[in-house]
Specification:
2 copies of one chain form a homodimer. The first copy, chain A, has helices spanning 4-28, 31-38, 42-49, 52-76, 81-98, 102-112, 116-124, 127-142, 151-167, 169-175, 180-202. By secondary structure, chain A is mainly alpha-helical. Chain A folds into 2 domains: 1-50, Homeodomain-like (Arc Repressor Mutant, subunit A, Orthogonal Bundle); 63-202, Tetracycline Repressor, domain 2 (Orthogonal Bundle). At the A-B interface, helix 1, helix 6, helix 7, helix 9 and helix 10 of A face helix 1, helix 6, helix 7, helix 9 and helix 10 of B. Chain A binds a DNA duplex through helix 1 and helix 3.
Chain lengths: 205, 205
DNA sequence: GTCTATAATTTGATAGAC
DNA sequence: GTCTATCAAATTATAGAC
């Protein structure tokens, strides 16, 4: 109770840092702007996080921690593959509607510094996740439940169609000549569309 | 003939600027590093391009000019839709194998400054391109040649599956546990795979 | 056209009072 | 814990000699 302010400020800083880093990236973000957004003094950033790099790391880790559990949870259920696909596209696109900067942010920073993935990601995604999904798909192929397809390609296809439209929004909305509202509508349709498109592609007959 | 050097230096600068800007982005790029890469003095950058922003603009424009014609050319042919799809995924993925930084670069910078698209893009993609493709798809749907699908979604699906794997390489290769060579192999398979996957999804029967 | 030297500004980080 | 003032380094940009 005594040190309520302390905790509060730290959260305010992290919240502001998320906003700025996710929109402008590590290189484009300015400590001053983060401080202004948090409504506190610039010195406080260093008091709580020592350096820009450490503050960035906290933001990046929090972004990963927000995304990873959603994937893992779906993959680990015992649903039929088709239902897993429906759950994934629906939940994932909904999630990104609320956190639209996260996918671009993560992928962009990972391209700048590919080694970051080893520190943060390996702990979250242990081998079993991808192995389990791989096995489920391979078994379905053998049983004749779906057309032959490499599990890797199926996964890449689903993830690509779910995430890319968020990253390429400025490009796609211009090419397709959609305004803000129309593009959002298009994205919402994809919650169902992507799943049915994928299922149509792999189901027999 | 007299001023051969002049032209040469300008090209060297642009070439070096492409390398640095496309890898590090506007914010992460340093004029000094561009000069070093070009093997010339930093002052020369300003002599030829006045400012970092103007040099960046030249690089960005050149990236757009490299990508856009490939899309337009394919869309404008009179091939059957299925063959257009095959041409697109094949040629596009081949292209990005050679220029792997371009898609991330364009999309990243467009997110930072969405207004850039109006200056560079509108002139390249006039309305007729997207309209023509839209019409071809709608006609095929009506004739019963393919399942009902919004042209917008079909376009987004194809582009997503072609481009995203390049942008998310650090992420995907880690999740799928592929080394450099294996991931490249996977990408190459996609030249054919994406087209057949899409065709399977939309064809009747 | 090309180089050296330097100006002008921005920015991450710290010292020290309260 | 929080603020003001300031440092030190980095970085874009320019002036001026050759």
């Amino acid at each position: 109770m005594i040190k309520k302010k302390e905790n509060n400020t730290e959260k305010q800083i992290l919240e502001a840092a998320k906003n700025i880093f996710q929109q402008k990236g590590m290189d484009g973000a300015r400590m001053q702007e983060i401080a202004d957004t948090a409504g506190i003094n610039k010195s406080m950033l260093h008091y709580y996080y020592r350096s820009k790099q450490k503050l960035f790391d906290a933001v990046f880790k929090s972004a990963i921690n927000l995304m990873a559990p959603k994937i893992i949870k779906i993959v680990e259920t015992d649903e039929h593959l088709f239902d897993k696909i429906r759950s994934f596209t629906n939940k994932y696109i909904s999630f990104m509607n609320k956190h639209s900067f996260i996918p671009t942010f993560i992928i962009q920073e990972l391209n700048r510094n590919p080694d970051m993935i080893k520190e943060v990601f390996i702990s979250k995604f242990d081998d079993s996740i991808s192995e389990k999904l791989k096995k489920q798909i391979e078994e379905l192929v053998e049983k004749g439940g779906i057309k032959p397809i490499k599990p890797e390609h199926l996964l890449i296809n689903i993830v690509s169609m779910s995430i890319f439209p968020f990253m390429a929004k400025p490009l796609l909305s211009a090419v397709l000549q959609k305004n803000e509202k129309q593009y959002k509508q298009l994205i919402n349709e994809r919650k169902m569309h992507v799943a049915e498109f994928v299922i149509d592609a792999i189901k027999i007959k």
